[in-house]
Amino acid sequence: MTNQPHKMNREQARDWALLLKMLRRRCPTKIPVRVLRRRIVIHGGDEINGYCDESRNGLTYVLYVSTSQSWQGQVDTVVHEWAHARYYDEHDWHDPEWGERFSETYRAYEDWTEPI
Ligand SMILES: [Zn+2]
């Protein structure tokens, strides 16, 4: 599968910055989060949508979001990975308690996108 990286237009770039600002305010994390957009190829050549990692010095979480997916896919991925950052190293991936954290994060996103 060869995907061209999805380039954001100006409006999407602005919305992306606002989304991250909202997540930082409404869904705080223990340590700051950096978000990096790029193609993510894992061993074997498969691409994944994103993942959450801790920086080597442990001072930040780093969320990787794949640019091989649509704009909405990238938004969904950053919301999902943000929930990991809020729950990093506390529990197994995708356990019920993580699910609650994801639900809160998704709800913040939904509230933010509701028309005023
Ligand atoms: Zn996950």
Count of DSSP helices? 3
**Mean of residue pLDDT values:** 91
Label the overall shape: globular
**How are helices and strands ordered from N to C?**
HEEEHH
Summarize the structure.
Helix content is 44%, strand content 15%. The chain contains three helices and three strands.
Key descriptive features of the protein:
single chain, 116 residues, alpha+beta, 3-stranded mixed beta sheet, 3 helices, 3 strands, globular, binds zinc ion
Protein topology:
Blueprint (H helix, E strand, L loop, with lengths): L9 H17 L6 E6 L11 E5 L6 E6 L4 H16 L9 H18 L3
Helix pairs in contact: 1-2, 1-3, 2-3
The protein binds zinc ion.
Zinc ion binds next to helix 2.
What can you see in these coordinates?
With 116 residues, this protein is α+β, with helices and mostly antiparallel strands. It has one domain. The chain is built from 3 helices and 3 strands, in the order H-E-E-E-H-H. A 3-stranded mixed beta sheet has the order 1-3-2, covered by helices on one side. The chain starts with 9 loop residues before the first helix and ends with a helix. It binds zinc ion (ZN). The site of zinc ion (ZN) has 4 residues, from helix 2. The site of zinc ion has 4 residues, from helix 2.
